[in-house]
Each structure stands twice: as structure tokens, then as C-alpha cells.
Amino acid sequence: MISFIKKIFSKNKIKEEDSISDVNLACAILLIEVSYSDFSIDNTEISSIIEIFKKEFNLTEKKAQWLSDEALNLHKDVNCLRKYIKLINSNYTNTQKKNLLNMAWLVARADNIIDKHEEHRIRRFAELLHLNHADFIQSKIETKD
To answer: Is 54 exposed, middle or buried (0-12, 13-18, 19+ CB in 10 A)?
Structure first.
């Protein structure tokens, strides 16, 4: 009986992780979170996210739009980003994580205003992605016009 209960819980855990199997989607949700951290998602920021997907993930316009829409839909129901961060940490190298941080800064700069909440969110993501403060500062400087 106990082994049966353990199997049920282990299956649920696996299903939960399988629901977020795409690292690109996890990155997209984090970028949407940066955009939303000032409590509004601007069309300029969404357009920049789509352009980032096309450039950085080598996606077509249609696939980039789908990824953006999917991330927006998922973001509405997300109350914890832990599984997305975990997926990125387990699949991305340090260089890829720094690149993701650069993408986050580009999203924050898209409307020409870096809100203090956006900067805080990016700083927190840097910490959660196990990047140091120097990486955070360098990324901020690199993405400046």
C-alpha cells in the first residue's frame, strides 16, 4: 500500500516537470516576468521579446509569436517561477545564463524606461541563475545603447 502511494506521488511529480520541458518556454516566461514587473506589459516590450526570440533562439516570426503568446498565457497562472529557474539552471551553461540576463535587460530597455521593479527582478534572476553581481553589472552595461 505504501509503495502504491509513493508511485502515485512520484508520477505526479514527473508529470509536473514534463509540463515544462522546453527551456525556451522557461526563458520566455522569465522575460515576460521582467516585462510585467512594473505591473504593465507594454506592446513595445512584447515586440522586443518576439525579436529576441527570433534572433537568440533562431525562430521564425510565427514560432516566436507562438512562444510569446504561450508564455503570456502561462504567466497569468504562474505563482512560482522555481520550476522554470530550475529547468534553466539544469540545462544552461553560465554563458547561456549571462545571455539570458542580457535578453532581460533588452526587454527592460525596450520602452526606454528601466523601472526600479524591472531592475530588481533582473537582479533577483541573476541570483537565482547563480550568476554573481559582476555579471549583473556587466550585463547591464553591455546592453546599454
So the answer is: middle
Inside any domain, residue 124: yes
Amino acid at 27: C
Any domain includes 1: no
**From 16-30, 53-67, 71-85, 113-127, the region with the lowest mean pLDDT:** 16-30
Q: For the residues 86-102, what does the mean pLDDT come to?
A: 96
What's the whole-number mean pLDDT along residues 58-87? 91
Closest CA to 23 of 103, 131, 123, 79: 103
> What is the CATH classification number for the domain harbouring 61?
1.10.3680.10
What distance in Å separates the CA atoms of residue 18 and residue 31, rounded to the nearest whole number?
A: 21
DSSP 10-43: HHHHHHHHHTT--HHHHHHHHHHHHHHTTS---H
Strand stretches in the chain, DSSP E = none
Range of the domain at 66: 23-142
**Whole-model pTM?**
0.81
Q: Burial code of 71-90, b = ≥16 C-beta within 10 A, e = fewer?
A: bbebbeeeeebeebbebbee
